[in-house]
Amino acid sequence: MKTFQVRGVSLATVDRGKGRPVLLVHAFPLDHSMWDAQIAALAQRHRVIAPDLRGFGRSEVTDGTVTMEQFADDLAGLLDEMGVAEPIVYCGVSMGGYIGWQFYRKHAPRLRGMILCDTRAIADTPEVRASRKEMIDRVLADGPEPIAQTMIPKLLSAPTIASHPETVAGVHRMVLANDRRGIAAAIRGMRDRPDCTPLLAEIHCPCLVVVGKLDAISTLEEMRSIAAKIPEAKLVTIAGAGHLTPVEQPAQTTAALEAFLARL
Ligand code: MLT
User: Fold this and answer.
1) Most buried in the list 69, 117, 209, 215, measured by CB within 10 Å?
2) Is 211 in the pocket of ligand 1 (CB under 6 A)?
3) 244 Cβ inside 6 Å of ligand 1
């Protein structure tokens, strides 16, 4: 990985391959390696940039709250530091999608297209906000293990959990490797994120919306409604996947991404 100083923090990123740039933005509470299969495949034709977001993986941790807008500004700053001036395709999963809405809002001229996987446009409900508070207290007191225990059954589908222990172990490792303060800062940012539903009709670039048919967090129905509101969006459903489509069904997900990128 390469490291860049961006807006006062050190951000680590994969930068592999040559061609039109594709930015892969990971989910919470993971790191860039959730994209390993896509990095290997897409780098054959594209320049693939897959950072660890602030507070995750090998990137620097900052305390307090990191808003979705701050993450988006970090990514724009990273592209500047890397000298990437041409338009990119932004591809984010879940929290990576929440950040994607803010990236569009603030940095739309930098975009050739967007891929939104297993994400939500609405803000947190009062119930979810209350559960975020419990998660913050828990992670600061006991570290990432309880977060892994709570989240893995929601992130991965039941078939993946039953039949792919190596996938479960890989996700578990990623969660445990993260710093408790970085996790807490991102939870606060997700808790405080705005409702982006009104933005969807304003997104005027080619968009691919990807959802695992078994996604328990951002359901098929919710993702269908997101795709219906974005003028140039196409929806692809991934069989046998829950919330982490790129990890659970890497071949199907990569094929969907490649087909979209080839049409741009
Ligand atoms: C994610 O996968 O990024 C998280 O599930 C998002 C969330 O907790 O809202």
Assistant:
1) 117
2) no
3) no
